[in-house]
């Protein structure tokens, strides 16, 4: 090659090289951003660029998802991932720009149509190791002795449904105050449960510390206890929680001791990023590990399993020391979500009993997405299902109508019936559903739900329940006796509304 040509080529290479390098996305990237509620997002991208083709993994706090349809075009790139929510699956589309050493990414927000903005930079070796840690071997299975708690389904409040990432010490204290002054405590609600986003970093000894929103967990627990209430906290067996905060991976025993030292009375333990390390087959052993750790920590702590009903958790939840286990994915504040969850409870009644309950998720009553009739149906079915009653609204400004639903003593009495037998489906079709729950003393609670958009007359026949009349009927929402009925009982039920009665010989 002629020297002049050589020089030209060199100049060309030097000019072209920086942009060619910048456009190569291959490698691991740490992306950060903020949700609209102010909580932080952290995720990783493992990109592999081959010409204009982009493949790899989006590593969210809950799962690793394979990149599809990935393309790079100059400084622009885009790709999709397929995300499944229970049986449904959704395509999430990302796009971005390469700006020097950083990536500006527009990421889908599964909770809204407004995309999230993330900035990504090359990940450090430590970040990569933290995101994809080595799998710690799981313990051999053995039954964890029952802790004797939750003889009836737990009652209280949880921060997630209403506050999500916007929960802090001050709000938790105000909720506890409200529960005392608005009658919730008197109605039987005890637990004040902090869900995700309280976690900070670990100290040099690996002890978990709360973040800035919770200056002193022990002091907060003392405050809640001083109100005659109990306090709950949240973690998970993976390195990160669902919202991307520090999890208990490899620190199970240490975290259980920390919770006990703070005075924590309830732990919700959420699978999330554990799914990047373990298989569903490992779930029982992984949950047993924390069950053992809580027991060894020596404080009575209600143990709430949250892994969305996978691996038939109802069959082994009690054996790992669990007091309750979620049976489905997350509830949303709408009729279809709430009733969809109910249809996943059919047949699970045989696994519930004093000390160990199916958990169809927290209540949405008072959050505004359903009508009052729909919320009464929600409350009634949770009582029939012997579900934990964890209010999920802002109790500081709850309306009297909302409080009257949550505090309905007669409905609560069904939920808390000492027999501890979960109700079952009697009939279910396009128009209505009927459920019955055996209560102590030979009584039964019966719920009739109108699925239609117009009021309808619904009937319960004693013979469908295997009972002979006459029976005494009491309407638990009207707080009224409806007399002694020979064969059954009928009533007008509003659209999406409920008739909840107690029947007694
Ligand atoms: C999961 C759980 C929810 C809530 C969030 C918090 O989605 O199922 O109940 O705890 O995580 O990130």
What is the average of the pLDDT values? 94
Strand content: 25-35%
| Strand numbers in spatial order across the main sheet | 1-2-3-4-5-6-7-8
In one word, what is the shape? globular
Q: What is the oligomer described by this structure?
A: single chain
State Rg. Answer: 26 Å
As residue ranges, the low-confidence spans are 10-22
Q: Identify the CATH class of the largest domain.
A: Alpha Beta
CATH-defined fold name of the largest domain: TIM Barrel
| Sheet with most strands | 8 strands, antiparallel, barrel
Bound molecules: alpha-D-galactopyranose
What is the count of helical runs? 12
What CATH architecture label of the largest domain applies? Alpha-Beta Barrel
Structural class: alpha+beta
**CATH H-level superfamily title of the largest domain:** Aldolase class I
Query: Helical percent range?
Result: 10-25%
Structurally, the number of domains stands at 3
Can you characterise this structure?
The chain has 505 residues and is an alpha+beta fold. It has helices at 3-22, 125-131, 160-163, 169-181, 184-187, 217-226, 252-262, 283-297, 335-343, 372-384, 400-406, 409-415, and strands at residues 27-34, 40-50, 53-59, 64-73, 76-85, 88-99, 102-107, 116-122, 155-158, 191-193, 199-202, 208-210, 230-235, 266-270, 302-306, 324-326, 357-359, 389-391, 424-428, 432-438, 444-450, 456-461, 471-475, 480-485, 488-493, 498-504. Alpha-D-galactopyranose binds at residues 160, 195-196, 241-243, 270, 306, 330.
In short:
With 505 residues, the protein is an alpha+beta fold. The protein has 3 domains: 19-131, Beta Barrel (Lipocalin), CATH 2.40.128.120; 155-421, Aldolase class I (TIM Barrel), CATH 3.20.20; 425-504, Golgi alpha-mannosidase II (Immunoglobulin-like), CATH 2.60.40. It contains 12 helices and 26 strands.
């Amino acid at each position: 090659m002629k020297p002049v040509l050589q020089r030209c080529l060199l100049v060309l290479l030097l000019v072209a090289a920086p942009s060619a390098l910048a456009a190569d996305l291959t490698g691991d990237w740490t992306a950060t951003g903020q949700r609209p509620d102010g909580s932080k997002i952290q995720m990783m991208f493992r990109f592999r660029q081959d010409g204009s083709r982009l493949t790899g993994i989006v590593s969210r706090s809950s799962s690793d998802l394979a990149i599809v349809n990935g393309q790079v075009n100059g400084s622009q790139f885009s790709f999709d991932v397929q995300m499944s929510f229970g049986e449904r699956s959704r395509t999430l589309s990302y796009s971005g720009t390469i700006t020097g050493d950083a990536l500006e990414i527009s990421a889908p927000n599964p909770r809204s149509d407004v995309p999230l903005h993330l900035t990504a930079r090359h990940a450090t070796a430590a970040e990569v190791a933290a995101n994809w840690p080595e799998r710690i071997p799981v313990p051999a299975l053995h039954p964890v002795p029952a802790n004797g708690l939750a003889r009836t389904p737990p009652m209280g409040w949880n921060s997630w449904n209403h506050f999500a990432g916007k929960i802090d010490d001050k709000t938790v204290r105000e909720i506890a105050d409200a529960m005392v002054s608005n009658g919730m405590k008197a109605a039987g609600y005890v637990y004040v449960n902090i869900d995700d986003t309280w976690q900070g970093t670990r100290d040099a000894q690996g002890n978990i510390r709360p973040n800035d929103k919770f200056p002193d967990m022990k002091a907060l627990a003392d405050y809640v206890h001083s109100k005659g209430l109990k306090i709950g906290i949240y973690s998970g067996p993976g390195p990160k929680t669902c919202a991307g905060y520090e999890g208990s991976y490899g620190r199970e025993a240490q975290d259980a001791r920390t919770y006990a030292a703070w005075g924590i009375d309830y732990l919700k333990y959420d699978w999330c990023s554990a799914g990047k390390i373990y298989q569903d087959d490992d779930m029982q052993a992984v949950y047993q590990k924390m069950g053992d750790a809580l027991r060894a920590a020596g404080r009575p702590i209600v143990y709430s399993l949250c892994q969305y009903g996978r691996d038939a958790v109802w069959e082994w939840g009690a054996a790992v020391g669990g007091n309750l286990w979620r049976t489905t994915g997350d509830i949303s504040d709408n009729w279809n979500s709430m009733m969809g969850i109910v249809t996943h409870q059919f047949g699970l009644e045989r696994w519930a009993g004093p000390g160990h309950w199916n958990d169809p998720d927290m209540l949405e009553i008072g959050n505004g997405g359903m009508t009052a009739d729909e919320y009464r149906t929600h409350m009634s079915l949770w009582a029939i299902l012997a579900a934990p009653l964890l209010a999920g609204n802002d109790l500081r400004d709850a309306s009297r109508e909302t409080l009257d639903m949550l505090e309905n003593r007669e409905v609560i009495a069904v939920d808390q019936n000492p027999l501890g037998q979960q109700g079952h489906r009697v009939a279910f079709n396009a128009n209505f559903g009927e459920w019955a729950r055996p209560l102590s003393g030979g009584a039964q609670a019966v719920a009739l739900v109108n699925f239609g958009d117009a009021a309808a007359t619904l009937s319960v026949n004693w013979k469908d329940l295997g009972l002979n009349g006459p029976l005494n009927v009491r309407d638990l929402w009207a707080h009224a006796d409806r007399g002694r009925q020979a064969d059954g009982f009928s009533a007008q039920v509003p659209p999406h509304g409920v008739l909840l009665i107690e029947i007694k010989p």
